[in-house]
Write a structure and sequence with these properties.
Transcription Regulator spoIIAA, 20% strand, 13 helices, 3 domains, 13 strands, alpha+beta
């Protein structure tokens, strides 16, 4: 597979490591040793797929702070270019195979926060740069360079250095963005396959962006990418009065009072020690979330 990927021009691969702890792997039914992972990385690099991403997950059953650190250290030894570090989301009503995982064995919120902080500290200590909320990259990686120059972007799959305004999603449930808004493909694989086999687009739904949507999206993206947003400047670029976004966001006042953000003349900055709750700051500008 590595040879075939390289032959078709693929130059980056993402490997789902999740955890190297044998007890955790057994609990989630995902047995994948360090030796197997290292062999996959070596094989990809040998065939010219030189950019490697690792996915790590915290909050898994039987996971501890120490096992998170050990997994991060083992992963660092393989020197991937990037890490994406996500919290496990237990939603058995949606993801049926999660019903095999006992919720009682999952770490609570405080432990999850400790695990996330421990992984971040380990990766930063190994020379990786923190990228937004949940990514880490080596200093010479495109993500780190994009963050340094203010060009970092975020889409439905995470952070990106690609400044293209059009993202086309391939495959079941994939989300794409075009000039006028968002589109999503059929969620189930069978339905997606039927549409494609019959020569039709597999798009199942979409959302046309309003001017208000575009401004909110721009503010949210800068918060998620830079941990700060210049609301007046963003609004000026869209020829919209910033007061309608700043004066009506009560949650922003609460976040400032709690010491999570600093707000001065419409410039919002998330304090570095609170980067893990940047979603809560971004959510203050989400009109759809507020209406739920």
């Amino acid at each position: 597979m590595a040879e075939a990927l390289a032959a078709t021009g693929v130059n980056r691969a993402s490997i789902g490591v999740q955890s190297f702890d044998p007890d955790v792997q057994k609990a989630i039914n995902r047995i994948q040793s360090k030796v197997q992972t290292a062999a996959a990385v070596e094989n990809l690099r040998r065939h010219g797929v030189g950019h490697i991403n690792f996915d790590l997950i915290f909050g898994l059953p039987k996971q501890t702070v120490q096992s998170c650190i050990q997994t991060a250290m083992a992963a660092v030894a393989m020197r991937p270019n990037r890490f994406a570090v996500f919290g496990y989301a237990h939603i058995p009503s949606v993801i049926k195979n999660q019903r095999l995982i006992e919720q009682a064995g999952l770490p609570d919120g405080d432990v999850r926060a400790e695990q996330a902080a421990a992984v971040a500290e380990t990766l930063v200590g190994a020379g990786y740069r923190e990228i937004g909320l949940d990514h880490f990259a080596l200093p010479d990686d495109e993500l780190a360079l994009a963050q340094k120059t203010g060009r970092l972007r975020r889409n439905s799959l995470g952070y990106s250095a690609d400044t293209c305004k059009t993202v086309i999603g391939f495959g079941a449930s994939a989300v794409g963005r075009v000039g006028e808004g968002y589109v999503q493909n059929e969620v189930t694989r069978d339905s997606y396959a039927r549409h494609i086999a019959s020569g039709r687009l597999a798009t199942s739904k979409g959302h046309r962006l309003t001017d208000d949507d575009r401004v909110r999206a721009a503010i949210i993206e800068r918060l998620m990418c830079d941990l700060e947003a210049d609301v007046p400047t963003i609004c000026a670029a869209h020829e919209i009065e910033p007061a309608r976004f700043l004066d009506s966001v009560e949650r922003l006042v609460t976040l400032a009072e709690e010491g999570i953000v600093d707000v001065e003349n419409g410039f919002i900055r998330v304090r570095p020690e609170h980067r893990f709750v940047v979603r809560a700051v971004a959510a203050a500008f989400d009109a759809f979330l507020a209406n739920r």
